[in-house]
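Regression test case RT-17, inverse folding.

Input:
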C-alpha cells in the first residue's frame, strides 16, 4: 500500500492513471527510455530528459530546476543504475508539486461561521462552469447543503449551463437575467444560502482577461458586496485553467493573479492532452496550490490534487 492510498482509493487512482495516459505515454516514457540500462547520467540522457519535460509543457524554468537537482543528487549520492535515477527524478518532481498548505485529504469543508463561500474565476472555454457543477456534486455526495450563484452574467450560455448543472445535481441555482450586475447576483446567492442554512456557496464569476482593469473592478465589487452578507467572504478564490493549453494556462494564472487574489487552482482537461506536465510547472512557478484536477468527463473525474499520486501516475510507480 502506498503512503497516499489512505485517502486515495484504487478507483480514483485508476481514473488518474487513465486520465494522464497521453502525457505518460508520449513524454514520460521517453524519460524512462533515456536512462534505461545506463549506469551513469550522461549528457545524452540529460538532453533527452530535458527535451521530454519541455515537450510536456513543464516549462523552461522548472525544467532547468529539475535537471540541476537531478545532477546534484546523482553526483552526491553516487547513484548507479537507471532505477535509482528514476526514483530520484520522481522524488524531485513530486517535491516541486508540494505546497506549504499541504494536500487536501477529502472533500471536506473548513469550519466557518455561516456558509463557506468559494468564488470561481476563469476565461471562457476552460471548463469553469463544468468544474463548478462537478464540485457541487462531490460536496453534495459528502452530505453538504450546496447553493450555486450564476454571477457570470456576461454570457447567457453561462447562466443556462449552470442551471443545467443545478438540475443535474439537484442543487439550487440563484440567477438573474443576462447583463445583470454580478455583485447583485452574488448578494442574492449569499442571502439565500444564509437563510436556508447552506454549508457551501459557489459563485460563478466572469473572467474577461482582455480588460484586466475592468475585471479587477468587477471582482473587487463582488467581494465587497459578499462581505456585507458574510464577513470574510469569499473564503476561497478558485481559478480554473485548461491544462490542454499548456504554458498558456500558466500565463493566464499569472494574469489573473495580477487582477485578483487567487487562493487555489483547478486544472482541467488533462485526459485529452500530452501537456499534463504543465501541472508541475504551475505548482512550481506560482505560490498558489493546485487543489483540483480534471482527468475525465465523469462527475467523479474532478479529483483533489495529490502530488504523490500525480507523480506516481506519470512514472507508473
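Golden output:
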Amino acid at each position: 500500500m502506498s503512503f497516499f492510498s489512505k485517502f486515495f482509493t484504487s478507483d480514483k487512482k485508476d481514473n488518474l492513471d487513465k486520465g494522464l495516459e497521453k502525457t505518460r505515454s508520449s513524454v514520460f516514457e521517453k524519460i524512462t527510455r533515456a536512462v534505461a540500462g545506463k549506469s551513469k547520467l550522461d549528457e545524452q540522457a540529460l538532453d533527452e530528459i530535458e527535451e521530454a519535460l519541455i515537450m510536456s509543457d513543464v516549462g523552461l524554468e522548472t525544467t532547468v530546476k529539475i535537471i540541476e537537482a537531478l545532477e546534484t543528487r546523482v553526483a552526491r549520492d553516487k547513484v548507479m543504475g537507471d532505477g535509482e535515477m528514476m526514483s530520484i527524478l520522481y522524488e524531485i518532481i513530486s517535491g516541486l508539486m508540494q505546497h506549504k498548505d499541504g494536500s487536501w485529504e477529502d472533500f471536506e469543508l473548513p469550519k466557518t461561521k455561516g456558509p463557506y463561500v468559494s468564488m470561481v474565476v476563469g476565461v471562457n472555454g476552460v471548463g469553469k462552469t463544468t468544474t463548478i457543477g462537478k464540485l457541487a456534486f462531490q460536496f453534495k455526495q459528502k452530505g453538504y447543503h450546496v447553493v450555486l450563484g450564476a454571477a457570470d452574467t456576461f454570457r447567457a450560455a453561462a447562466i443556462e449551463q449552470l442551471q443545467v448543472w443545478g438540475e443535474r445535481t439537484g442543487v439550487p441555482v440563484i440567477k438573474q437575467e443576462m447583463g445583470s450586475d454580478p455583485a447583485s447576483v452574488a448578494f442574492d446567492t449569499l442571502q439565500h444560502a444564509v437563510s436556508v442554512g447552506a454549508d457551501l456557496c459557489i459563485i460563478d464569476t466572469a473572467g474577461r482577461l482582455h480588460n484586466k482593469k475592468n475585471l479587477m473592478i468587477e471582482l473587487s465589487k463582488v467581494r465587497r458586496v459578499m462581505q456585507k452578507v458574510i464577513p470574510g467572504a469569499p473564503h476561497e478564490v478558485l481559478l480554473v485553467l485548461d491544462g490542454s493549453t499548456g504554458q498558456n494556462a500558466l500565463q493566464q494564472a499569472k494574469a489573473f493573479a495580477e487582477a485578483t487574489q487567487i487562493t487555489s487552482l483547478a486544472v482541467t482537461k488533462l485526459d485529452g492532452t500530452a501537456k499534463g506536465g504543465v501541472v508541475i510547472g504551475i505548482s512550481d512557478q506560482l505560490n498558489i496550490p493546485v487543489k483540483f484536477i480534471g482527468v475525465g468527463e465523469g462527475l467523479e473525474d474532478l479529483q483533489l490534487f495529490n502530488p504523490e499520486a500525480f507523480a506516481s501516475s506519470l512514472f507508473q510507480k
